[in-house]
Amino acid sequence: MKNLGEFKCPKCGWVHAGISEADAIAAVTDFNEYFAALSLEAQADFGGNPTTLERYTRCFRCGAPAANFLPAAPGDAPVGCTLQVVIAPNTRVLVELLETAADLSAHCLVSKADMARMNELCDRTQEGLPQLATATCKIDTGGH
Ligand SMILES: [Zn+2]
Questions:
Q1: What's the 37 CA to ligand 1 centre distance in angstroms?
Q2: Are the C-beta atoms of 86 and 135 separated by less than 8 Å?
Q3: Which of 31, 52, 53, 77 counts the highest number of beta carbons within 10 A?
Q4: 54: how many CB neighbours lie within 10 A of its CB?
Q5: pLDDT in tens, the chain (144 residues)
């Protein structure tokens, strides 16, 4: 699973790790295969239900669509914390959004470096980046 960068929910500020739609689909498939092999008791520990791709399309905390997420600025997420995973937003759309909304860019404090990263992502994902999404699997960054 490739981390495409950190993206922040514009509504509540929660930071998520962005992955491609293909990686999200793979993560859902992997988890559900694992889940199906568990005892009912163990399944209950995961809430009793298999996961869905839809869960990768929303903010883990407030449920806002991940399609509207913005690149996180350095320091938005505490170092070493565990980030929930979402399908990374279409960064080309984000760039347009930022270019047309001065308020937004001021609010989100997108640095020059982040802007460069977004442009890079756009080039890399031209073939059809994802609709945005939020995930329920977690990246263990070694913090806790
Ligand atoms: Zn949110």
A1: 32
A2: yes
A3: 77
A4: 10
A5: 778 888 999 999 999 989 888 888 988 999 999 999 999 999 998 889 998 998 899 998 999 999 889 888 877 877 666 778 888 887 555 555 544 444 333 333 445 555 555 555 545 544 333 322 222 222 334 433
Q: Residues 115, 109: contact at Cβ < 8 Å?
A: no
Strand 83-87 to strand 70-71: parallel, antiparallel, or no bridges (unpaired)? unpaired
Ligand 1 (ion): which residues have CB within 5 A?
Answer: 9, 11-12, 14, 59, 61-62, 64
Q: E strand or H helix at 8, and its extent? A: strand 6-8
| Single-letter amino acid, residue 38 | L
Q: Retrieve residue 38's tokens.
A: 């568990």
Q: Residue 23, by phi and psi: left (phi above 0), alpha (psi -120 to 50) or beta?
A: alpha
Beta strands (DSSP E) in 9-121 are: 15-19, 70-71, 83-87
61 Cα to the center of ligand 1, angstroms: 5
